[in-house]
Amino acid sequence: MARPLPARRERARINEIFDRFAAALPEPRTELEYASPYTLLVAVALSAQATDVSVNKATKTLFAIADTPQKMLDLGEAGLARHIASIGLFNTKAKNVIALSRILMDEYGGEVPRTREALEALPGVGRKTASVVLNELGIDPAIAVDTHVYRVARRLGLSTAETPVKVEHDLMAIVPKDRLTRAHHWLILHGRYVCVARKPKCAQCVVADLCPSRELFLGA
Questions:
Q1: One of 19, 52, 93, 128 is an active-site residue; which one?
Q2: Which are the contacts of 139, defined by CB distance < 8 A and separation ≥ 6?
Q3: pLDDT at residue 47 above 70?
Q4: Co-location of 17 and 69 in the same domain
């Protein structure tokens, strides 16, 4: 890695990184398909250790018949499991989705709660899932750190932290405030399609000249 830049130059570098992401993709959004806060919550919960493509394939038929907590309860755990059998950990996820649907009906009138505390109290909903939901619904400019965001943040020198939670804290502190609501999406999409794990596509990267890790991959 290159030596750290002086504070003023580093701030300018970070601002330029997110300016370029914004210019390339002004309105990034999750690639998960949903039509309501409930279907968003379910889709994000199902996406743990699974690709968005596989989740969308499963939820296309699932949400056609069960797009509310009550309809999901009517479908039942076994019925849900059959719809999501192509997704990793489908039995556990089916159990959690049915359990959280019951809580939504019993405690929230069938609505998805809008606070982190309430979301994280739901079965199968951790910090990352809650952050995605809160961000996507425009409630909280959260940054959900998955493997892509973690990798990109560290390669770009936006964080040197070793855990997702600490990387999240670093990002929340340095991402320009007017970019916070979209930062998660830019970072995850960049990691998914450009700054990939094994052979990052530096020639296609809009911030390659600002990346302290670029030389590590040149000629790789």
A1: 128
A2: 114
A3: yes
A4: no
